[in-house]
Design brief:
This protein is α+β, with helices and mostly antiparallel strands. It has two domains: 57 residues; 147 residues, Alpha-Beta Plaits (2-Layer Sandwich), CATH 3.30.70.270. 58% of the residues lie in helices and 13% in strands. A five-stranded mixed sheet has the order 2-3-1-4-5, with helices on both faces. The longest helix is centred in the N-terminal third of the chain and has 56 residues. Its EC number is 2.7.7.65.
Length: 220
C-alpha cells in the first residue's frame, strides 16, 4: 500500500508542480525579451538625440551653415580623400549696411548671401560661415578655369539678390572673393591665410571682384 502511494505521489507531484514552474519561467523570459526591446529603443533614441545635438553644435545658428570649426574639420577630412580648392568670401560694405539699416537687416542680408552661395555651388562642394560677414567654400575641383567660373557665378548671383528692408528699401549686395586652387597638400591654415590675403587684394581692387591663384608650392 505504501509502495503504491509513493508511486502515485512520485508520478503526480512533478506533473502538478512542473506547469506552474514552466509558466513562471516563460513569463520571466517574456518580460526579459520586452525589457531588451525597450532598452534597444531607448538606446536608439539616445543615439538619434546625440546625433542631432552634434549636428546643431556644428552649425551656425543664423545661417544654418557649418560653423568655423566644423567647416575646417570637414575640409581636413575631405582633403585626405580628394583634392579641391578654397574660396574665402566676404560681404562688401557690411558695416555700412548695419549702420544704415540696423543689425536686423544686416542679419537678413547675410542670410540671403549664405543661401545664394549655397545655391551657386555644387552638391560635392562645402560651405561654412567662418566669421561675422565671412564665408568659406571648399570646391571639389582643382581645375583653375572651373574654380574661377564658379567664383564668378557666386559673385554675380549675389549682386542679383533683391534684398529689401521691411520698408521696401532695396539694399544692394556684393561680395569680394579670394581663393587658392588645389589645396590638397600643406596645412589648411596656411591655405586659408593665402586665400585671405587674396580676399583683401580683391577689396583693395574696389570690391565685388575675384582674385584666385594656384597654391604656392613649397620646395622639396
Amino acid at each position: 500500500m505504501h509502495n503504491k502511494m509513493g508511486f502515485v505521489i512520485a508520478t503526480i507531484c512533478p506533473l502538478t508542480i512542473t506547469p506552474p514552474i514552466s509558466l513562471m519561467v516563460f513569463r520571466q523570459s517574456e518580460r526579459l525579451r520586452v525589457t531588451l526591446i525597450q532598452l534597444g529603443q531607448v538606446m536608439q533614441q539616445l543615439e538619434e538625440t546625440n546625433a542631432k545635438l552634434l549636428e546643431k553644435a556644428s552649425r551656425d545658428s543664423m545661417t544654418g551653415l557649418l560653423n568655423r570649426e566644423a567647416f575646417f574639420t570637414h575640409v581636413d577630412r575631405v582633403r585626405r580623400q580628394s583634392s579641391g580648392s578654397l574660396l574665402i568670401i566676404d560681404a562688401d560694405h557690411f558695416k555700412k549696411i548695419n549702420d544704415q539699416h540696423g543689425h536686423y537687416n544686416g542679419d537678413g542680408a547675410l542670410t540671403a548671401i549664405a543661401h545664394c552661395i549655397s545655391r551657386s555651388i555644387g552638391e560635392q562642394d562645402s560651405i561654412g560661415r567662418i566669421g561675422g560677414e565671412e564665408f568659406a567654400v571648399f570646391l571639389a575641383s582643382e581645375h583653375e578655369d572651373e574654380v574661377r567660373a564658379i567664383a564668378e557665378i557666386v559673385r554675380k548671383d549675389v549682386t542679383l539678390i533683391d534684398f529689401r528692408t521691411p520698408e521696401n528699401e532695396r539694399v544692394p549686395l556684393s561680395v569680394s572673393i579670394g581663393g587658392v586652387i588645389d589645396v590638397s597638400g600643406g596645412a589648411i591654415a596656411d591655405h586659408f591665410q593665402t586665400a585671405d590675403r587674396r580676399l583683401y587684394e580683391a577689396k583693395r581692387n574696389g570690391r565685388n571682384c575675384v582674385i584666385i591663384k594656384p597654391a604656392m608650392k613649397t620646395a622639396a
